[in-house]
Amino acid sequence: MKIEDLPREALLELLSDFAKNWLAHDGLWFQAVERHHGLEHAMQLDAEAWARFSPIEARRIRALLQLSAAPGLEGLEEAMNFRLYARLNEQSAVRDGDRLVFTMHRCRVQEARRRRGLPPFPCKEVGVVEYTEFAKAIDPRIQAAPLHCPPDDPVEGVACQWAFTLAE
Asked: What CATH code is carried by the domain that includes residue 81?
């Protein structure tokens, strides 16, 4: 059997499995670097990897969706639904005046850490790199800023939250 032969429901399940496998690999890679070189070094390398990966993911999504070179916040909102972890996390995006507020309500990474009795992963620093580079690759005018992200104090129903605006 080939992937092309699978029925729609099996393809969607496979898509979720691919996303889980990708996220598991990302986490295991990070933990290996942390074990051997410490958290600070792992965070630096993680940010470097996200700085390179995020634009690749964004450009592929932009091509898939046939978005223009500058689709604005509407294009970013649509693209966010096609990120690898969008199949795994509970997220939403809301227009708030001249900005797009993206909220990750449930984060698989943070939930796994909570189940293991670990503190939240301090992802804000890496998230700034990830979301900035993703947004810029969708539309170079878009700027990203964290509204809430660990290590910030927990907010009920919010794993992290980001604001996206268009530069004038």
From this structure: 3.30.1380
Structural domain boundaries, residue 140: 3-166
Instruction: Note down pLDDT in tens along the chain; length 168 residues.
Output: 999 999 999 999 999 999 999 999 999 999 999 999 999 999 999 999 999 999 999 999 999 999 999 999 999 999 999 999 999 999 999 998 899 999 999 999 999 888 988 888 999 999 999 999 999 999 999 999 999 999 999 899 999 999 999 997
- In Å, what is the CA distance from 27 to each residue of 21, 39, 54, 121? 10, 13, 16, 11
Edge to edge, the sheet with strand 99-106 lists 90-96, 99-106, 160-166, 142-148
Give the tokens for residue 139. Answer: 């539309």
